């Protein structure tokens, strides 16, 4: 029997199932670690300790989390309009270009108080523009958005290499990066903020854009579920025909949604460029855009789920690095394999356990709304 | 119809004579007595016997202690409202669900049916309401699908071709074996489904709402095929809403209500009114609506030479002109796919016309000046779409969210940016009460409502706007009798409130019950107009098949 249309309570859907998926993934990861002769329990301990055991670890974990929240949200909001935005990577990259251009032009002109808003806005704008082109092609030319957004990642990458090597490079420098932006444009680090209140924590890349990420989660949640634009977005995502019937223009929804999605992905550049590097560099996106797809899948395209999924991936990144350091037999590649297992079980096989859980749920707790079996 | 007394090869039970039954008050007792003796006499096991079948879904008792006996070589009708448990029961028989308790006996021996494969090997075949065919396969390939005998298809295909030829000769149901299924008319697709079941040696055939998509003539053909199958000993279970079909074709009929069998009797011993009453559990008002003789209102809809072509360049609506006056219901009859749906979409502003024009509620629309559905709503043109699940509501939305679909931008329902969920829920609640939508819980998912209740919600939403033009498509498709009554009444009420109503339906009964005038469409053209009073089914049926012109 088909169980896909039987509703489960939110806590099972959003917390229990993902948790079980992670357990299965960890079990298989444990088998692999056991097979190469290391102690899986010890490995988990090292990993968790690396991620949470001390304040520097926590800082790095949350810094990675920030990027995943942005890209996860970008994928999720597009997904609600039934658009698969694979282009988060490119959109984030081009958003970096936006920050770079505006700061190179303005960082010594604008008053400091305006620099940071301008940086954030230009990131959003450039990210949105990079998503707008595939969106337009999808809406008005029928080019499949999966294909175009993937292609736009490559275009973004080539464009950035060209610009950084030939145009924007700091004169006289050997490495393809811009000059450092003026200090007024830097986002405050968390250790600095804590410092203002007299709390000393270890220096990490974690900066205030983590809070921006949390605010974005809230805004995305409100937008999708509480506004009439979100209503239109969900309608168009569920049924294009119903949207047309309701006087909603699906093309317009595609354009708007992709722009929001691109802007969210673009905020990765805020974290990386304005928060950490303070100059435009090559490949600062480091695959966060792609991981965002797994994050959104795992977080069930819900902002709350995305926060937890992002945290998990933050732990994997930071704890994984620690693991590779502490246990020499577990290489960096092995850590990637473990991440792959988690993505496999919580992304691709996310619904594997669901039918069984539905059965158990129906057996232990009757729900009254299944009256349509006629 | 076929001669009801024709009995193939002496297969029991002989149908009781109508007079005979009228003179017998103690039918129930006598019937079982007859059955027992005859069963002993012929010593033939029952084709299907269900013993105390129960099935729960959560708190819903979908089937409760169901006992059902189906004689071999008979047509057994099962009727009941939506949600009465018909589909669940058949799904248990066909192995989609497992019964919580109870026993299934096939040909007298207990059968353990865990999936459809088991059902097929027990000789059960099922023709679903929505065909399970691959459109891009030929008929032969569809029949073969899942019953291939070896890795290389050639040999199986040859065998199948022979067997199918044999079957279609035997039952006079020819289907072009090498035509793509998607290119066949629905009647032939249905035959393909039947052939599929027969090819798998089905001795018991379950048909779920088989005539929903057929013209009256196609339905007659189907019944002739069923008759032929019955005469050769095939047992047929017919699930349907249409009581007339039950009367025409079945030998016995069981009525399900709220998961229980409330009656099983010989069809000849009962009548439509009784069955309807058993299904609904109360007396139904006789549906008789006064037809408006000479509506003198202004024109709500005026269509001039309207032509619409689809994406593939086919003409869907071909030079159509008519008008609908305020206070009048005009019904469009026609076999599904003859342009009615397109016409409705164009009038609702979903698609633009290609040439010609129409004036709807004072607003002129032609190929140049397109009016979108939003503007249509604003000028008092409301549209109840044919496909409620695709257009009318969003399954994953709550009922409250679906109840403002199309009106989400109205001031009542939002504060510019944010949706005013409280007001939306309150409005939904009052719609639900006015139209008796059950359960009346605005927070439930739209998909959790039965078809009838979904339809009532959509109708409530559109009628709440007090439209001056109402476009309504298939208002009662898949809706149970109780809800049909209410929906029809609401449509009549809105007509009496001086609304111009354009009704598109494939149900001739519905068109004839409601319409003041009837327009018949065939291949995008209007092939006839009849006043609602003078309409009779045969004439309409012939017009729908465009047999009038070809005969003339």
What is the CATH C level class of chain A, in words? Mainly Alpha
What's the N-to-C terminus distance of chain B? Answer: 24 Å
CATH fold-level assignment of chain A: ABC transporter involved in vitamin B12 uptake, BtuC
Q: What is the oligomeric state here?
A: heterodimer
Q: Report strand order across the widest sheet of chain B.
A: 6-7-8-3-9-10
Set out the fold topology.
The complex is a heterodimer of chains A (374) and B (552).
Chain A: H1 10-35, H2 40-52, H3 55-80, H4 88-106, H5 112-141, H6 145-167, H7 190-196, H8 209-226, H9 228-238, H10 240-245, H11 250-277, H12 288-298, H13 303-326, H14 332-348, H15 354-364
Chain B: H1 18-22, H2 27-42, E1 48-57, E2 60-70, E3 75-80, H3 86-93, E4 101-106, E5 109-110, H4 116-121, E6 124-127, H5 139-144, H6 153-170, H7 186-199, E7 204-208, H8 216-231, E8 235-239, H9 243-249, E9 252-257, E10 260-266, H10 272-280, E11 299-309, E12 315-325, E13 329-333, H11 340-347, E14 355-360, E15 363-366, H12 373-378, E16 381-384, H13 388-392, H14 399-402, E17 414-415, E18 418-419, H15 421-434, H16 451-463, E19 469-473, H17 481-496, E20 500-504, H18 508-514, E21 517-522, E22 525-531, H19 537-544, H20 547-551
Parallel strand pairs in B: 3-8, 3-9, 6-7, 7-8, 13-20, 13-21, 16-19, 19-20
Antiparallel strand pairs in B: 1-2, 1-4, 4-5, 9-10, 11-12, 11-14, 14-15, 17-18, 21-22
Helix pairs in contact in B: 15-16, 16-17
